User: What shape does this take?
Amino acid sequence: MPAAPTLIQAESVFREYRLGETVIRAVDDVSLTVEKGEFLALLGSSGSGKSTLLSMMAGLDRPTSGAIRVRERNLAALEPDELARYRRETVGMVFQSFNLLPRMTLEENVELPLRLAEVDRRDRESRVAEALERVRLGPRRRHRPSELSGGEQQRGALARALVNRPAILFADEPTGNLDSLNGEQILLLLREFQDSLGMTIIMVTHERPLAEKFANRIALLSDGRLVSDGVRR
Amino acid sequence: MKTRDLSELAVRNLREAVLRNSLTTLGVAVGVASLVAMLSLGVGLQTLASQRLTRSGLFDAVFVTSQRNFRGPRQPPSPDSAPKRESRALDDDARQQFSKLSNVTEVYPQIRFVTDVRYAGKSESTSVLGLPDSSRSSGAFDGMKGAFFSSPTANEAILQIDFAKVLSDQPPSLIGKELTLRYAERAALSKAADNDEALLDTMMGSGKAGGISIVPRERNVRIVGITESDPSAGIGGFGGARVYLPLKTAEQLHVAQPDDLQAFLSGNSAKPSYMAMTVRVRSPKDVPQVEESIKQMGFATFSLLDATKSLRLVFTVFDLFLGLFGSLALTVASLGIINTLVMAILERRREIGILKALGATDRDVRSLFFAEAGAMGLFGGFFGVALGWLIGSALTWGTTIYLHRQNLPGVKISYIPWWLALGAIAFAIIVSLVAGLYPAARAARLNPVDALRYE
Assistant: This one.
């Protein structure tokens, strides 16, 4: 079987933070490739640098040095507006704390990326409905986040990440605030997106069993360094 | 992000913190209201003054005298001055010529004479002035007791209150009564007298024929009104008249005028001439052109156009000061906007992070905060104009009550023209946008990772 094309390539990535006189190296010389359609789990304990690495690959942050190439374009060298466009068009994001805007209904939250991408109003309704159907939240579309359970909120966040039809979905501890049942449901949905939409999924987690159960590949980070890069399944 | 989406999000955000945003918007409204109220007072007073002055007829009129009458205070002509044109008599021919000039609406002579007024056995000497029918709307007769002349040729008189008090202890009781005017009529000499005069002229060696006679006459007129103001005051009136007749009635009396003697001596006594004439024009801007044309005809002229320019300057400076004071409140309100938006950034830090994670550019975030500041300015501007109008109306109402208690007619001292209303709203939006500059820039600069971490 021919190898899948490389989608993301991190080359000697460093990310340092300065706290007064102290320099904290959150990511320390990490090199990594992610192939198209892969489900990669970044595993590590708290403070291992996995979320920082994910933020850089998602275009939310920039490396102190090194390069992160997505489809041959180095994210570190992009202008702020180009980076925003990358986040808008190529990337979908899910967070541990769901991050739905509390004053908007579920469908308004899901519509938000389409507003930012200036998608025509007539197309928005159908795309929002389709995304909500995929996560089985169609009947709850008029509810506000406070009226939804944690699992439903995370599924809503998944719909919002999905609605722009991104090539890569980044999930930062998506099950961190959920019970095991809801956590499994979310990961099942991620797998479903990977299989049915051909989406590349990069997930940060500290729960090894879940990573082993759902991801194709596990990369282990410790103290900012990549200590192992698991076998593809 | 498209403008419509941006506006929807901005309005939604404003609705979320409705109390705080309403108070900030109210602050803007109070600022705009103070600005509008101040300027509306300035504009109102200016309009009032302009209306009164326009109605007085002082600024749309050219006052014409014969150069014979007004040679000036014996100053020698400057060496480079144009050669003097031949001075002409201010007679009916001249009046016809003035009437034909473009933009001239009315020409009337100044008929003023001294008379002996007889009423109820009393005899008083006073000055009489002929008033054109257009004086009716000059404002000088506002609040007059009785009525204006029933027709331009009526045998009616209006008395000035001081003179009416001389005639009666109860001036209003004079209305409807008749009084007798004794005056000197200028009459052409009879044929026989003419021959005698020719003989006299021959004897005196002038060789010129013609002459006038001065005959005492009486005319009964009915008193129709008593006025407190002096409609004869001002340029062209010179004040002091105490009895007013319709101009045509006064003309028909053929009263001897001071110029008659000079006309007689210069041999032009056949036609009556006048001391002065008033040439009324369509609008004050027509004054210079008409004035120049009349000067070209060989007459001396005078107008108050320069005075209106000075008046406009005074009111502009007055408005500027009022505007500055009014703007102070708006400046304070703009600090409120900055405070509200900076607070909003702190509260909505996480939301800004989410928007950026979803692909919002710095410009989108900046525009969102700008739109919120602009919306507060827009609503504040609208409410402010309404509030300013209410304040202005209250001031007008209060002033009117006070004036009525002083037996004076009410006046509208506050006036909000459309340009003031629109300008105030635009100014409120601009001030709000300027106030939103710093918060918007600060929100746009937020690092999304830091913002998402914020609890």
Q: What stands out?
A: The interface with chain B takes residues 55, 58, 60-61, 80-81, 84-85, 87-89, 91, 93, 95, 99, 101, 103-104, 112-113, 115-118, 160, 164 of chain A (CB under 8 Å). The two ends of chain A are 13 Å apart (CA to CA).
